[in-house]
């Protein structure tokens, strides 16, 4: 059987059609109001600016408004916290995205945790993470939630499977592992201090690469029939997993690009629409 391509671009497009209808229904109900995503960009990192632009474009595609807040690189933590407080208090804003990384002098965790839970559509607060981990309602962190949605769309079974997540960052590896645990997988989390990484990966029914190093996870470590999710993206269309030799012998895999990336943005806008629907209910 040929491997299933976990086509994030396709799933994101399908979802956008549905989201556009939901936004149109909200406009009809509220006299032309839409959910609003506020994006905060601190500094002038070109990659971050591009990501923010892509998110604003996704909002536009589904007929939803966004509000761009651009702050200088010299912004202090307290200034950023005040900005977020104002957005929390603004009834016209339904979701808040703080583009990260922020400049290193800023306390990023404090900034994330200032975001009100009901507007944490990127799923970055400790409170949201804790609630999600306990199976309580909260918006999932966008990248791992996007991966879960992608696996669900292709009916990839997680229950009882051994999932190995390589990476434990607060916005990817850790929430990914907790989401897979919630879905009844048996989860191993690997990181830079893990011994015998290869031996752990060899056991994986589902492997998630979230390392940030090009093709770090070697194809020969991955068993036949595994489900392979590559969250990495590096110049030249390369991910964190050496995918080339795998495509003929695994059950399913995410392409790079076009796998995880589109699902991340799609999850962010989907969760903003949900937040808007709750606010306008
Ligand atoms: P990160 O914060 O740099 O975390 C990398 C993780 O990999 C850390 O937990 C680190 O372990 C682990 N690691 C580093 N070297 C390792 C090694 N030799 N063996 C095992 N583990 C190792 O990165 P991130 O933000 O989670 O991002 C991971 C990847 O996903 C990147 O390629 C990034 O570009 C991509 N990404 C994609 C999207 C998307 O929308 N497509 C979104 C976010 C991130 P320690 O904790 O021990 O340091």
UniProtKB/TrEMBL annotation:
Residues 6-122 form the Tetrahydrofolate dehydrogenase/cyclohydrolase catalytic domain. Pathway: One-carbon metabolism; tetrahydrofolate interconversion. It catalyses: (6R)-5,10-methylene-5,6,7,8-tetrahydrofolate + NADP(+) = (6R)-5,10-methenyltetrahydrofolate + NADPH; (6R)-5,10-methenyltetrahydrofolate + H2O = (6R)-10-formyltetrahydrofolate + H(+). NADP(+) binds at residues 167-169. Its EC number is 1.5.1.5, 3.5.4.9. It holds the Pfam family THF_DHG_CYH_C. Keywords: Amino-acid biosynthesis, Histidine biosynthesis, Hydrolase, Methionine biosynthesis, Multifunctional enzyme, NADP, One-carbon metabolism, Oxidoreductase, Purine biosynthesis. It comes from the Bacteria. Homodimer. InterPro entries: Aminoacid_DH-like_N_sf, NAD(P)-bd_dom_sf, THF_DH/CycHdrlase, THF_DH/CycHdrlase_cat_dom, THF_DH/CycHdrlase_CS, THF_DH/CycHdrlase_NAD-bd_dom. Residues 142-278 form the Tetrahydrofolate dehydrogenase/cyclohydrolase NAD(P)-binding domain. One of its GO terms (molecular function) is methylenetetrahydrofolate dehydrogenase (NADP+) activity. Catalyzes the oxidation of 5,10-methylenetetrahydrofolate to 5,10-methenyltetrahydrofolate and then the hydrolysis of 5,10-methenyltetrahydrofolate to 10-formyltetrahydrofolate. Belongs to the tetrahydrofolate dehydrogenase/cyclohydrolase family. This is Bifunctional protein FolD. It comes from Candidatus Paraluminiphilus aquimaris. The lineage of its organism: Bacteria, Pseudomonadati, Pseudomonadota, Gammaproteobacteria, Cellvibrionales.
